[in-house]
Amino acid sequence: xxxxxxxxxxxxxxxxxLFIAISYLFSVSLRFIWVNEFSPSPQFHWNNExxxxxxxxxxxxxxxxxxxxxxxxxxxxxxxxxxxxxLTAWLSKIVPVSFESIILYMPSFIGSLxxxxxxxxxxxxxxxxxxxxxxxxxxxxxxxYNRTMTGYYDTxxxxxxxxxxAVYFIILAITHQRNRxxxxxxxxxxxxxxxxxxxxSLNTALLVTTLGYALLFExxxxxxxxxxxxxxxxxxxxxxxxxxxxxxGVFAFFHFQPKxxxxxxxxxxxxxxxxxxxxxxxxxxxxxxxxxLFRESVSNTxxxxxxxxxAQTVREAGNIPFNVFAERISGHTVTFIVACIGYLLxxxxxxxxxxxxxxxxxxxxxxxxxxRFTIYAVAPMALGFGYLLLLATRAIDKEWLRTPILLLLTSxxxxxxxxxxxxxMTPTVFTAQEVSTLEQLGKTAGREDYVITWWDFGxxxxxxxxxxxxxxxxxxxxxxxxxxxxxxxxxxxxxxVMARLSVEYTEKGYENNKSAVIAEMLKTYxxxxxxxxxxxxxxxxxxxxxxxxxxxxxxxxxxxxxxPTVTLFSYLDLKNPDNQPQQPFFYSTQSVQDTGKxxxxxxxxxxxxxxxxxxxxxxxxxxxxxxxxxxGQDQRLxxxxxxxxxxxxxxxxMASYNRFLVIDDFYxxxxxxxxxxxxxxxxxxxxxxxxxxxxxxxxxxx
Length: 702
Description:
Elements: H1 13-30, H2 32-38, E1 45-46, E2 49-50, H3 57-69, H4 83-94, H5 99-111, H6 115-124, H7 128-140, H8 142-146, H9 156-159, H10 161-176, H11 182-195, H12 200-217, H13 222-235, H14 240-256, H15 258-278, H16 283-292, E3 298-300, E4 306-308, H17 322-330, H18 333-349, H19 357-364, H20 366-369, H21 378-392, H22 399-423, H23 432-444, E5 450-452, H24 458-465, E6 468-469, H25 478-489, H26 492-512, H27 517-524, H28 530-539, E7 551-556, H29 563-568, E8 586-589, E9 593-594, E10 598-602, E11 605-608, E12 613-616, E13 619-631, E14 637-643, E15 649-654, E16 659-663, H30 665-668, H31 671-677, E17 686-691, E18 695-700
Parallel strand pairs: 5-6, 5-7, 13-15
Antiparallel strand pairs: 1-2, 3-4, 7-18, 8-16, 9-10, 10-11, 11-12, 12-13, 13-14, 15-16, 17-18
Helix pairs in contact: 1-6, 1-7, 3-4, 3-24, 6-7, 6-10, 7-21, 7-22, 10-11, 11-13, 11-14, 12-13, 12-19, 13-14, 13-15, 17-18, 18-21, 25-26, 26-27
């Protein structure tokens, strides 16, 4: 182990602060590449500022807005109690820039704080230069950059920073063995868990690692069990102030009653452990494991109904190939391999780094649990990379030569990350045209009114229109997605009935503390299936619940690409999950090649123009109907249609969007296709509010 140890560096406070400043400014500056790219484009601006580029950010923005406003509506699901919303509202009061600027730039300036605990960890081990190399690489590597870039307004800006501070304080306590470092451990863990409650699993793993470290290497050293005790206090499922009060009480006992310390320590330790299990224990961890490692295609709810599991459709919760895994952690496969070797050698040289193992382990389960977890391994792997660079160059005794070599090798590792940042140009969630539509809706709709759309658009709609939604980025379980999917993909009569039912039963559920709206509907109307329910209500529309608020249907163009996914949530047998019906046919493309005799639509699909036949691979299917839809110079929708056969698939050419659709009758008759593509609506059921080419809004009349 001594073979791998580096000569300790004597870094002054000035050097430490200089390294932190360099890496912080480097991290922030690279996040302005996105700003420079999008700033010249007016369609990405609103209220004289660039808009954010993550849907979930609008939930926190809504919460901060409502905090500043001083009120919000009951059951509007506003994030008024979320730490990020509270921090944003506080910053809005003291920072002299617009609210839009604050939510845009917070991820860059706060997320870049990751460099501080990384450098401090290395400094504690006597290798501040290792920390500088690690901070530079970790702050801009793929996964960390993606989730803390400018505009990515989400909790990720501190989700890694705070646990890293907790790790730093543990390593500091291990290295110096002073009681004064125990309270900061509790503060760091408490802040981490307050900011991001899902960090409970990671924090518990850090506790296990700390205990394991004590038992393996310092079994007879009483101080190491003190460290573990304060870690436990920090992760208790109790209010922040209560954990701090317990920590201060225990610390005072140790400080003022040192003679009783040994006698009462283990009873006290046992009491805190008991408190840990009585306030949650491993139950939250098991719930998370089931959600990510044991995903099923259906999820159960009340009434014996089975719904589609949203985790199956979320990309970040899926398996990823090794090269993507490596690039997201270290920027390049070669850098990742070097970092892995360096990390293992660093642990041999500096045993306290074992405390970072849970972060590495959580990052590595991304291979099966999804790419979102790679972010946890970024910092430890960066430390490993920095360590191996120093180890490989330690034989160079001339500092004037060693420093440029280290700079060159670090730059080589940074270059793939720089290229990624240049290419990773995530657009804003909505364009200015779409936001203008939503703000118009906000002037028409009341705060108690509902807008029904798919969950991807729930948060932005609530932020810009100040209305309620059925589903959003946090409320999107299978049972609540079912009615939204049904409304969008079924014919208008069925969808309209479901819209009224789902909104009124959702509101009633808030009053009665019942969330299973579909089960409640079937129970109330004594219907066996949703089809039976629809048939009964079509025959007896007066049986619909009384309308207590207005309902709007939001149909954006951007829903077109996810329409098959939307369909999955309602095109199923709720009582027999194994009875999976064949999904209806939908194909959309903007990549078309005209060969003269055929139109090649990609993926083996083509149109034989002179025969009105579709080729689907080796299969020929008649074109039932052909529609050409587009906007004229007067911005009015023009529709030309031809009918060729009694059976087959329909083709829609959306000329204004240069898009072809190949669909079956299910999709042709769906509310989304009829009302968005054709502007066709049943005047008894709906009335148009806004018919913009990018998004169309209808008001329910039942």
